[in-house]
Amino acid sequence: MASDTTAWSVIRTGRELTLHEFEVANLPGSVHLVRSFVSHEISQLPLSDEARSDLVSAVAEAANNAAVHGTAAEGRPNTVLTRITRLDSAVRVRVRDNGRGFRPKLREWKPPDLMAERGRGVFIMKTLADEVAYPRVRRGTLCLLTKRFDEPVRESIARPEESAKKRRGEGVLREPENMPPVIYRSLIENALEGVWVIDTEAKTVFVNNRTAKMLGYSAREMLGHPLRDFLAPESVQLHERVKERDRTGKSQQFEQDLRRRDGSIIHVLIATSPLYDETGRYAGSLGLLTDITERKRSEDELRESENRYRSLFGAMREGFAYCRMMFDKHDRPADFVYLQVNNAFPRLTGLRKVEGKRVTEVIPGIRRSNPEIFQVYGRVTRSGETEQIEVYLDQLKKWLSVTVYGLPPDHFVAVFDDVTERKLAARQAKEQLEASEVLIQAAQALTSHVELDKVMKALADVLLRLTGHKRMAVALYNEDRKDMTVLYAAGDRPFQAGLVFPYESIPRPVRKLTKERRAKIVDYDRLPKEATGAARAVGARLGLVAPLVLADRLVGIVSIDTPDERVPFDERSVRLVEAISSQAAAVAQNARLLQTARENEARCASMFDAVREGFARYQAVYGKAAKIVDLRVLDVNPAGAALSGKPREQQIGRTWRELWPDVDPQLFALYEQADVTGRRVRFEDHNAITGRWYDVRIQPIERGEFAATFVDVTELKETEAEQARLLEAERRAEELTSRLNEINLIINSILRPEEIMGRVVDEAAAAMRADSVVLDLPEDGMWVPRYTHGLPEILGRRFRVEEVPFLDEAIRTKRPVDVADAFEDPRARPEIQRQYGIPSVLVAPVVSRNEVIGAIFFNYHRAPHSFTSAEKDFASGLAAALAISLQNAQLYEHERMVADTLQTALLTMPGRLDHLDFAYQYRGASEAVQVGGDFYDLFSITPARIGITVGDVSGKGLDAAVIMSTTKSIIRANAIAGAGPEAVMQRTDSMLHEEVPPDIFVTTFFAVIDLPAQSLTYCNAGHPQPFLRHRNGEVEQLAVTGPLLAGPLTTQPYESVAVTLAPNELLFLYTDGLIEARTDGEMFGEERVGRILAGLEPVESRQAIDAVVAELTEFSAGRLQDDMALLAVRRMQ
User: Of the candidates 112, 134, 160, which is a domain's last residue?
Assistant: First the structure.
């Protein structure tokens, strides 16, 4: 053992504790004997409870591994050495073996409550208080603390040859030769650990009382039962692997879940060793059981608590550092080591990878720059108390607020936060407060005077006291000339007031103020002499120049220095001078303005009396609710007095109500408006005394005081009124011209005289803005109102021209006559005018061919009206248009009479025909011209044969009527001559081609009714298909059988078709004006006609015509776009 005997040291703060070595023989149970010695020695180490417990478990397991893997072949014990070294805050475990080369897995025994991470080839196992580290070892070897025993013990556990013999021959359960059986049995039965022996079938052959009590059985009850009966379900597979390993002769240690009698589960630590009989064959296994249920539960709780702690620890917003304080030999704090930091530490400090390092390494120079940190940390570490400090670390450029918790004797925890922003804000607030006090003092000094000299002196006192310098000057900047003029100077060797510095003599840094607008320190000694001659002449060497800026415009500068000396300026003074200068700019400007105002006031006073415009100052007289109820005259210039109509001396000091008792109260409201808003109010006022108009402008001076100017604008008002009148007359003339054009369009677009006249009087009333309009026409030597707007009661009354004298004048002169006051004008009869309530009237004669054929009256009922030339022109133009319209109406009447006569002649039908019931109707598209091309005919060919014709000639008027008559005559003549329908059509077509123009065509339906044969034979030449209604109510249409008459030449023949026409069956014929009638784009259509005919009951010809016409009238609102001819024929019995 001498070669393996080595002393290993534990170093703790300069003190040594020597551990002995342990030897472990490969004997069953030797591991448990070694554990007690190991636990005792480790308990002396300066470790935390958690680290100490974990190290005991690790050593014990390593000892077990040594026992399991060891053999006696080499003739010496399987000795394993472990070195434990504590350096600073780390416990370092170095491991080696004796050459056996066994490879335990590290993770199998790693303490569960420690967090492992890999560093550079090193496994780090952390706790809060300690850190256990061990290097990655070759071949995975793990070593064990050993200790030299005295000889008796050594012989009993460390003779490998004898141990091997006993293992092969006697077995380990036999009592030691030197121990009585009773004692040995008692030791086994009452051992604190459970003992369980099973045979080769894994059946229980022995358990001690401790084992039985663990499982809730008696020892007798457990005998004979297989081990499987006591295993937790999930542990059965693990047991099979353990049992197989026992058979190979290997000892092992593992954790196992066992099921108690009540079904609950306990956790045990089992160390097993195989048993052999006398022949050396495997006879079973011995297991030593330790109940670790409580330990497992504690481990789980500790792990959960550790996880919660680490989650909170990592999420802290504040920085956290766990450190060990290092003291020198005089027990003074010399340094400290970072043991552990949280995630916020590098974020707040910018320092990384500090764990295990001294603060003097991490922050060089901190001992010298911040000795107070070491004093506080050392004091807290020793006392265990808590202190809080704020410290500035120049190396980090940060302020930290630190709370230190002592953990005697040599540890502490620092919790800190970055308060740099708060500290900087506090410092800035302090500086701002000091600056505010200076600025307030400056403002008070500047605003306590209004005279320019006093303001400048106050400014100089403030600036020189603030900076400690001895000279100050203010110069004004001229933007046009780019030069500067000294306005004020004070102190030693001051500049001369009024001195002008040309642009080229101004130093360059001062010139830059025109753009940069920031205070500058000017070093005159370093500037070229030619650019600083004037400044150097008065001893300027180092000065401060600040801009005077008003409304973003440089108005001047402030210059501060000490003559012939280079007295420096600190940053604070520069900022304050700049701020005070910004205040002084406005104050100086106001003082200058006040001085200028006073100078101007004298000039204004002399001008006040000379101006032509009226000027006055008034003071408000307030009544209830602070309303202005009167104005007192403070001053008025001569022009104002003249305009108001009262002498100046009489007005001053008196109120308006005293001067003008009838003053309009509304004027006070205008002054009150100016008083409340503070804005100028402008209005026009008419002076009843002078009869003049004035443009008045009120300017509020201060609360309750006003300045008012008066300008006589009477002539201007008259001019404006005339211009407005002319513009209105021009606009009115344009409006009436436009309305007259619209009326002309109406006259030209409507043919019916009744509709034209009704529309004209309505439009004329709107255009002339008249209350009523009446159109009179001469009838039998009298004048009769025929059309009116707004005066229906006058229609039909007959007047003699003598009753309306102004009408007689209009007829004689053939010109419009206006009567503005019909109640007084001798040209009017007052009784008639009063009867209808017409005070004003304009009449225009309607003249055609130098003959008056009508008169139009424009009446105004509500108020008298003065007629303009534009209105008279409108009346004349309208009368001329009515003349043309009335002429057209006469022509229309004549043409209508002719058309009615011709239409009646062309559409004459027989009174009656035997065996036939027939009805017909013709409707023109426009009542203006009733002669069209639609026609029908019904005639007897023979007593038994009846001819029926319906047709439509393209076009309208007399030409269409002639072609219609020709067509009827040709068809009738050929039919009576005996030709069939197809032959009649062929001959008619040939004759029409010779007679009618090429752009005319005719659609025609011709049929012959054979009464005895009850047949209808027809030929349809392009005409809309007639309807045939049968007795059962069914309706069919008769097809087209040939081309148009007189249409384009074609080889298509005309064909006849014969159908039955039984009694009470109806033939309904029509032209296209019926089916092409439209409303909102929708056509009346053939389908609608067929539906009407199908719904008739009973069926009569007139009933059919009336039903179709009634629905057509409702559909089209009585307006047709084309002529329409209808013919219905019913065969009677």
Answer: 160
Domain boundary among 891, 918, 938: 891
Q: Which amino acid is at 120?
A: R
Residue 306 lies in a domain: no
Spatial distance between the Cα atoms of 778 and 808, rounded to a whole number of angstroms: 12
Does 845 share its domain with 965?
no
Residue 148 CB neighbour total at 10 angstroms: 14
pLDDT at 345: 93
d(CA 1067, CA 1009): 11
Query: 1018 with 1088, same domain?
Result: yes
Estimate the share of the chain in helix, then strand, then coil, as percent rounded to the nearest 5.
40, 30, 30
Cα of 379 vs its chain's centroid, Å: 60
3-state secondary structure of 763: helix
**Residues 616, 573 within the same domain:** no
Q: DSSP secondary structure string, 933-955? A: SEEEEEEEEETTEEEEEEEEESS
Q: What angle do CA 928, 934, 937 make, to 5 degrees?
A: 130
Question: Which pLDDT belongs to residue 201?
Answer: 84
| Type of residue found at 647 | P
In a shared domain, residues 977 and 1118 = yes
User: Bridge partners of 519?
Assistant: none
CA–CA dist 324, 327 (Å, integer): 10
Residue-level pLDDT at 55: 62
Among 858, 860, 856, residue whose Cα is nearest residue 845 = 856
* 1074 lies in the same domain as 958: yes
Residue 64 contacts residue 35 (beta carbons within 8 Å): no
> Residues of the chain with pLDDT > 90: what percent?
31
- pLDDT in the model for residue 512: 82
Instruction: Give the span between the Cα atoms of 631 and 639, in whole angstroms.
Output: 19
Whole domain around residue 1095: which residue ranges?
A: 907-1131
What does the alpha-carbon distance between residue 520 and residue 507 come to, in Å, rounded to a whole number? Answer: 12
871-930 pLDDT, tens per residue? 999 999 988 888 887 777 767 666 667 666 676 667 788 888 989 999 999 887 755 455
**Which range is least confidently modeled, 398-407, 931-940, 1083-1092?**
931-940
Of 149, 19, 32, 31, which is closest to residue 81 (Cα–Cα)?
19
708 with 615: CB under 8 angstroms? yes
Is the pLDDT reported for residue 680 higher than 80?
yes
Q: How many CA atoms lie within 13 A of 1008 on its CB side?
A: 26
Domain count, the chain: 7
Straight-line distance from the first to the last Cα atom of the chain, in angstroms, rounded to the nearest whole number: 156
Whether residue 307 lies inside any domain: the answer is no
User: To the nearest whole percent, how much of the chain has pLDDT over 70?
Assistant: 77
Q: What count of Cα atoms within 13 Å lies in the side-chain half-sphere of residue 1010?
A: 13
Helix (H, G, I), strand (E, B) or coil at 383: helix
Residue that the structure tokens 């008259």 belong to: 718
pLDDT band at residue 1020 using 50, 70 and 90 as cut-offs: very high
Task: Quote the pLDDT of residue 530.
Answer: 66
| Structural domain includes residue 311 | no
Q: How far apart are CA 59 and CA 207, in angstroms?
A: 28
Per-residue model confidence (pLDDT) at position 891: 72
Low-confidence winner among 573-587, 662-676, 832-846, 1031-1045 (lowest mean pLDDT): 573-587
Tell me the sheet residues that pair with 917: 1130
**Domain shared by 697 and 751, yes or no:** no
Question: CA 195 → CA 237, 239, 290, 532, distances in Å?
Answer: 22, 17, 9, 110
* Residues 884 and 775 grouped into a single domain: yes
Give SS3 for 733: helix
CATH for 234: 3.30.450.20
Both 249 and 220 in a single domain?
yes
State mean pLDDT over 460-487. Answer: 87
Residue 169 lies in a domain: no
The CATH code of the domain that includes 762 is: 3.30.450.40
Q: What Cα–Cα distance (Å) separates residue 316 from each residue in 309, 321, 345, 607, 999?
A: 11, 12, 10, 81, 105
